[in-house]
Structure formats: C-alpha cells, structure tokens
Design goal:
8 strands, binds zinc ion, alpha/beta, five-stranded parallel beta sheet, binds BIS(adenosine)-5'-pentaphosphate, three-stranded antiparallel beta sheet
Length: about 210
C-alpha cells in the first residue's frame, strides 16, 4: 500500500515513518531528507534550496516533484510519503505520477498536534547523522548520552531550521499552503485523522489501526 503522512512540522511524521519501514517493509520518501541530502552534495540546486529551507519556506514544486518522480521509478512494496505533497499542485502531480505508474494511493493519515506541543518537539529534536534515527531531549533521549541507540554513531545533529524564528515560518507555510490538502483528500475519501498527542508507541498503534482498516 502507498500512504501519505500529513501534518505540521514536529507532528511526528518522520518518527512514525521509520516505524512503518521497520514493521511493514515500506519505503520512506521524505522530501525534507532528500533536500537535506541535496544541499550537502554541493550542487547548485542544493545551494539554492539551503537558504529557502533555513528560512522555513517551501522550496518550489518543480524541484520536489522531480525528486519524487525519480524515486517512484525505482518501485517498492509500498511508499510512505513523508512531508510530500505540501501544496495542491504537488498533490495533483502525485496523483498523475501514481496513475502513470499504475500505483494507487491507499490512505492519507493526518497527524494532529497542537502548536504548543509542536514547538516543544522541534526545539528538543536531534537526529543521528549516520542512520537518521530521531531523538528528543526529553521524550526520546538515547540510552547512552551522545550515542545513537541504533547504530552507535556519535554524530548527533540538530537541524539549522529547528529554531523558533524558522519554525514560525514553517507553521505559517503549513497552515497557508499544506492544510488545504486535508479537505482535498477528505473529498477523495482517503483521509483518516489521528490524534498525534500521545506517546510514540500509542500513536504508532493508532496509525496501524487506521491502515488495517483502509
Ligand atoms: P521536513 O524535513 O519535511 O520537515 P517538517 O515537515 O518541518 O517536519 P519535521 O521533520 O520537522 O517533523 P516531523 O513531523 O517529521 O517530526 P519528527 O518525527 O521529526 O521539511 C523541511 C524543509 O524542507 C521545509 O521547511 C521546506 O523548506 C523543505 N521541504 C520539504 N518537503 C517539501 C515539499 N514537499 N515542498 C516544498 N518544500 C519542502 O518529530 C519531531 C520531534 O518530536 C522529535 O524530536 C521526536 O523525537 C519527537 N516526537 C515524535 N513523536 C512524538 C510523540 N508522539 N511524543 C513526543 N515526542 C515525539
Ligand atoms: Zn544512528
């Protein structure tokens, strides 16, 4: 099955996508991760997107649609779209790409978390630079300080856009440009809303239940 995880910055999309990869063998397609990879590659495109991302604004539809098109061509048992689509134009483009390749969209999981909790989650977040595991100072610290539980790396990093100023812009971008997708997918009968304000395991169970019912 192919699913979209939809929700504001810090809702837990990346955290839950990794769980689904482990539990169901699905493939996570995070446009945020792809763009962060592009910026470390030092290409011209990478440099252009770096400034936009650090301000917390959305990069152009053309760039992200191009990234997704490449990945879909590789095929998989099931895709988890994490952080894509983020505009109505991206949603239309995804629909067309799936049609072209004969794939279906099975469910859109909207993760609901209030702004106050989002700020707490984003300002406490760090990730493993080696394997991508997501941590939090309070809610998900590694067992041994400074060392990744999963791969043992000590390369734990914070993102340049995880500051209060950029986060404000990211939230505004979400409410202006991305939240209309909730109605878009509701009208297509694809939407399930999940309360994301619970422990990580509990949210994972809610998502699993939603997928098994889809
Ligand atoms: P992107 O990388 O997609 O970031 P985002 O949408 O802002 O989402 P986050 O990664 O911040 O949050 P998340 O929901 O994955 O939460 P996480 O699981 O990490 O995009 C970054 C930028 O790239 C954009 O601003 C834009 O510039 C560009 N971009 C990307 N895609 C684009 C597109 N399609 N179009 C245009 N531009 C695009 O969790 C957050 C924290 O909370 C962690 O510390 C975690 O441990 C903790 N946590 C998670 N779940 C729980 C829980 N249940 N309880 C307590 N803590 C929890
Ligand atoms: Zn790691």
């Amino acid at each position: 099955i192919n699913i979209i995880l939809l929700g504001p910055p810090g809702a837990g999309k990346g955290t839950q996508a990794r769980r689904l990869v482990d539990e169901r063998g699905m493939v996570q397609l995070s446009t945020g991760d792809m763009l962060r990879e592009a910026r470390t590659s030092g290409t011209e495109m990478g440099q252009r997107v770096a400034e936009v991302m650090d301000r917390g604004e959305l990069v152009t539809d053309e760039i992200v649609i191009g990234l997704i098109r490449e990945k879909l061509a590789e095929g998989a048992k099931g895709f988890i779209f994490d952080g894509f689509p983020r505009t109505l134009a991206q949603a239309d483009a995804l629909g067309a790409l799936l049609d072209e390749t004969g794939m279906t969209l099975d469910a859109v999981i909207e993760m609901r978390v209030d702004d106050e909790a989002l700020v707490r989650r984003i300002t406490g977040r760090f990730t493993c630079g080696n394997c991508g595991e997501v941590y939090h100072d309070e809610t998900r610290p590694p067992a041994k300080e400074g060392v990744c539980d999963v791969c043992g790396s000590t390369d734990l990093r914070r993102r340049a856009d995880d500051n209060e100023e950029s986060l404000k812009t990211r939230l505004l971008e979400y409410y202006k440009k991305t939240s209309p997708l909730i109605g878009y997918y509701y009208a297509k009968d694809k939407l399930t809303s999940v309360d994301g304000l619970a422990e990580i395991d509990e949210v994972a169970q809610r998502i699993s239940a939603a997928l098994d019912g889809a």
